[in-house]
Amino acid sequence: MSRPDTRAEEVQVTEPGEGGRGSRLLNLIERAGNALPHPFWLFWILGGVVACVSWALNASGLQVRDPASGDMVGVNSALSANAVRDLISGAQESFVNFGPLGVMLTVMLGVAVAERSGLFEALARRMLSGVSPRTVVLGVALGGVLGKFISESAYVVLIPLGAVAFRAVGRSPMLGMIVAFVSINAAGDANPLIAPGDALYASVATEAAHLVDKDVVVRATDNMYFTTVSAFVLAGTIALVVDKFLTKREHHLTPDADLEAAAAQQVVVSEVDNATEVRALKLTGLAALGYAGLIVLAMVPTSSPLRGEGGAIVESTFMNSIAIFLTVFFLLIGAVYGRLTGRISGSAAIPGFMADGVRSIAPLLVLFFAVSQFLALFKWTNIATVVAVEGADFLKQLGAPTLVLFTLLIAAIATMNLAITSGSALWTLVAPALVPMLMLIGTNPATTMALYRIADSCTNSITPMSPTFMLCVGYLQTLNRKAGIGTLVSFTLPIAMSMLLVWVLLFFAWYLLGIPLGPGAPVR
């Protein structure tokens, strides 16, 4: 099988000795970050720090009023008999119920079949055969932004696919992973599609708004116009930063030769002639359309078990269990393609591919154990609640002009997000204070929700506290054993900060022009 023309002359990759002051700073950040302990040990160390901080805050008697329940809550000391008892007895449950763990394992069962059948490689090669190495960045970025619709599953599906896409045009597959990751992680809240998270944000905002006005209803579509435009603006920002700046550092993302050879071997297991491949891709596409059509037909009746209560579609069995449907989808198309090309000789090969997929992510399972225990400790101490409430109260007491207040609000939430990386958890904590506060100065709850999206998204891609950040580190280490936290931060930091600036400026222009954020949702 002939390989695609890499057109390497279209990308000028700077050699290690080149680069300006900014590049040298990022090199320093990379070295400092990679000097940190292995992420597995880092989370245990951070757990010790949190335990000591919780003891000090508990001893100080600090308490805040939880806006959700109205109760006074303080920080629980992790250096107590109750803490040791609860955390040890709940360790297994914390690990098993760790959100990304179940999604990753489930979706990987299907993705492994599609990947090892050669489907991903064939699709990427044919789709990108006429695409320049520069254009591929925008393509992967758009895919990542739109891919957040499938929630946490997007990371498992699109990060490896980003590697395949970049490899197909002769660029570093590690950079492809990073572009896919930052697009999902930092720009995912700009998705133009209505996802389950939108319904959650809207319901929390509605409850918070009722503290001021019982008649206010915030809908999942209230940010639709703004997020649709934002999706394309942010994808373009990612492509611009990567092409104009990070390409100069692409030499830092050279895979280990043996790992790269193994990765390439996984998706190119046999030669397939062009006619057979074209026929297989067409029939696989028909199978994918048939699968989608069956789901649509199954959801037509309002009483369908795939719908939610009262016939709801956004909050439904289908949307809440999207990982299962994705697993079946990738299993189906991988099996069809592999059977037609001869890469799957019989049904017995499919479980073998699935097992290979699980084995390939074994290092991530080990890392997730440490991450899950740290997050359980952090949640048990109530430090997250105290940080969120104190930060919201600080903003409330400033009495600053609207745009200044918006800027401070974004900065404060973006900083909180470095530690509390769950978007839904942080929104649940701060919305009951922020939504009523801003309503009293004339701000629509939909506007507060849009501000939160901006603040919550960008810094996710630069904090090791995020499970998906560590997931991406794990993926990078499948191609380069020395890749670490510093490697990822040194590439995501310029993108994240550029996106944050561009998104804030876009919102301010939107606000000043008075453009509605969504159907029936004025910006002010």
TrEMBL record:
<dbReference type="Pfam" id="PF03806">
    <property type="entry name" value="ABG_transport"/>
</dbReference>
<feature type="transmembrane region" description="Helical">
    <location>
        <begin position="224"/>
        <end position="242"/>
    </location>
</feature>
<keyword id="KW-0472">Membrane</keyword>
<feature type="transmembrane region" description="Helical">
    <location>
        <begin position="135"/>
        <end position="166"/>
    </location>
</feature>
<feature type="transmembrane region" description="Helical">
    <location>
        <begin position="283"/>
        <end position="302"/>
    </location>
</feature>
<feature type="transmembrane region" description="Helical">
    <location>
        <begin position="491"/>
        <end position="513"/>
    </location>
</feature>
<keyword id="KW-1133">Transmembrane helix</keyword>
<dbReference type="InterPro" id="IPR004697">
    <property type="entry name" value="AbgT"/>
</dbReference>
<feature type="transmembrane region" description="Helical">
    <location>
        <begin position="322"/>
        <end position="340"/>
    </location>
</feature>
<feature type="transmembrane region" description="Helical">
    <location>
        <begin position="398"/>
        <end position="418"/>
    </location>
</feature>
<feature type="transmembrane region" description="Helical">
    <location>
        <begin position="462"/>
        <end position="479"/>
    </location>
</feature>
<keyword id="KW-0812">Transmembrane</keyword>
<feature type="compositionally biased region" description="Basic and acidic residues">
    <location>
        <begin position="1"/>
        <end position="10"/>
    </location>
</feature>
<feature type="transmembrane region" description="Helical">
    <location>
        <begin position="40"/>
        <end position="57"/>
    </location>
</feature>
<feature type="transmembrane region" description="Helical">
    <location>
        <begin position="361"/>
        <end position="378"/>
    </location>
</feature>
<protein>
    <submittedName>
        <fullName>AbgT family transporter</fullName>
    </submittedName>
</protein>
<feature type="transmembrane region" description="Helical">
    <location>
        <begin position="425"/>
        <end position="442"/>
    </location>
</feature>
<feature type="transmembrane region" description="Helical">
    <location>
        <begin position="95"/>
        <end position="114"/>
    </location>
</feature>
<feature type="region of interest" description="Disordered">
    <location>
        <begin position="1"/>
        <end position="20"/>
    </location>
</feature>
